[in-house]
Amino acid sequence: MSVTSTSQMSSRSPPRVWQKVERDPSSRLHVIIVGAGLGGLGAAISILLAGHDATVLESASEIGEIGAGIQVLPNSSRILISWGLEDKMAKHATMPRYANMIGWKGNLLSRMDLHAYADALGTPFWDFHRANLHQCLLDRAIELGAKLHVKSRVETVEYARDGLTATAVLSDGRTMLADLIVGADGISSRLREVLLRKPDPPVPTGDLAYRLLINAKDMLDDPELRHFIQVPQVNYWVGPDAHAVNYVLRGGELFNMVLLVPDDMPEAAMTVDGNVEEMQALYRDWDPIISKILRLCQSVQKWKLCIRPSMERWTHESGTFTLLGDAVHATLPYLASGCGMALEDGAALGLCLSKLTNKSREQKLHALGVYEQCRKERTEKVVERGNFQQYMYHIHDGEEQRERDKRFAMFGDIDEKLLKTPEVLTQPRGGSGDDPLPWRYHGVGGWLLTYNLEKDVEDRWEQTQGEDQPRSLL
């Protein structure tokens, strides 16, 4: 797999498209991926590019994606481009100009120049309809040779005595043998519980999301609303116990809006139909522009927002079963990074498996160990910062809110100065900063957006390389 391995990222070093590895049967794994969501399909693409075989099992009767909008940050678009998807993705993407932070009464608090950051980092901020992103991943996986099976719910995993293979046991009694099984079955993961050997439901966060799509034509007809469509931006209104997010999809055809409020759903429910009037009432006293947008809404769904706490280990001791994506580290959507972390997981797994020279337990365990080292701390930081942003966005009016708003403005000034020397934005920072607009350099941007996945895998591989360990194929 041919990849870029530079220490810095900038517009002068855009990502190269990875080329598929040709390998003989002695080192070619048969990998079963459980779940055909964004993370599962991303893993299939990366594993196929590494020269292995991939079969994707989906429990639903057809493969597709539900939901509305999704934001893809530069660290994630870098991966999509590396997978050969730039031209296809660009047809469906909107590239917002700014991320605006707005007080709940309508006062602009601060903004981030997304185009300037994209120019510095060499890869874009993209907004998609989830269905379009999913279809592009599905098409690429099939193009590379993925085999897909629907109506295939995996109930458990059994391990061979020799530790070389595992068997996926399906709910209808079928069994499927693999050298490696990858659990990518989402936030309500059955395979997480299989690995842990105990029930482990998702953890509610106390928030829910109203997700709605509005026909952009209805907004273009209104002089007060048309600018939201004509100049695509990402807008966040933050206020007591709630916030609201909106952005444009499909090149101006749709307007995506998400309202984040305290959870009042039944304990067992994850998704239910919402009441439009009830939703509108929650924002009655907010910026009047929100109420005007919400009057265009005809129907809405409510989604319970849950997270997944960290796991001590992601991989079974046999080296034949591992996890990725929301099954391991589901996060609040407040960093717009749940999808991005799943794509990074899949990319890292493929890069590690690209280095195998045989199918031994030792080589698989080494590859999966490096994969976990690359992913564990980073994904834990995303979950942690997502929880912090829940608190930061929902502060009530008062002294703490005024201090937060001062930081919005102060770090906005710092950011403007940084943009005069954009090469600084490509230099990774070790930890998170105090900027409440999280994607800027002094929030989490310094480690989230600057991430060089290929270099991380290579560095950690070299650090763990022993005399009997497999050589690199990169």
Give a description of the structure.
The protein is of the alpha/beta class and 474 residues long. The chain is 36% helix and 22% strand. An eight-stranded mixed sheet has the order 5-4-13-14-15-12-17-16. A five-stranded parallel sheet has the order 7-2-1-11-18. A three-stranded antiparallel sheet has the order 8-9-10. β13 and β14 form a beta hairpin. The chain is globular. The protein starts with 29 loop residues before the first strand and ends in a 10-residue tail after the last helix. 48% of the residues are buried.
Which secondary structure elements does this structure contain, and how are they paired or packed?
Layout: E1 30-34, H1 38-49, E2 53-57, E3 69-72, H2 74-82, H3 86-90, E4 98-103, E5 108-113, H4 114-121, E6 126-129, H5 130-144, E7 147-149, E8 154-159, E9 166-170, E10 175-178, E11 180-183, H6 190-196, E12 203-215, H7 216-220, H8 226-230, E13 234-239, E14 242-249, E15 254-262, E16 271-274, H9 276-282, H10 288-294, E17 300-307, E18 321-323, H11 326-329, H12 338-353, H13 361-393, H14 399-418, H15 441-448, H16 453-464
Parallel strand pairs: 1-2, 1-11, 2-7, 4-13, 11-18
Antiparallel strand pairs: 3-6, 4-5, 8-9, 9-10, 12-15, 12-17, 13-14, 14-15, 16-17
Helix pairs in contact: 1-5, 1-12, 2-12, 12-13, 12-16, 13-16
